[in-house]
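Quick one: co-fold with zinc ion.
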Amino acid sequence: MPTDTAPAIVGPEVDHDSAPFWAALGEHRLSLQRCTACQRWRFPRMPSCPYCGTDGGEVLDAAGTGTVYSFVTVHIAADPAFADAAPYNVVTVMLDEGVKVLGGWIGPLDVAMQARVQATFVAHDGWTSLAFQPV
Ligand SMILES: [Zn+2]
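Sure, here it is.
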């Protein structure tokens, strides 16, 4: 049965570890963890460094720049809320800080591998998602 409105895009399931990340996106910041011992950045947030095992870590804003590491083009959306957007890309970006993150894509479908990109922030009803665009 047709409807007059598109289905709402469901937001993330926010938990203790991911809440600061999502809150930062709402402030147009890409907030990530960095180990205070080995200085390596990591994503997603986790209680200890996966490289050296040090507990905790500092939370810093990444510059939001990097290169396209990989991408997929979605032709048939798994969620009806994204059906009108298809085809669209989801990208994995290697940030300049040396950590990979996932995001939406704002740009042509023909993505160039290792293209320079900049983070951008997409507002939804009550939450913000991360996306990247070519620079
Ligand atoms: Zn470490």
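If it helps, The first helix runs from residue 19 to 26.
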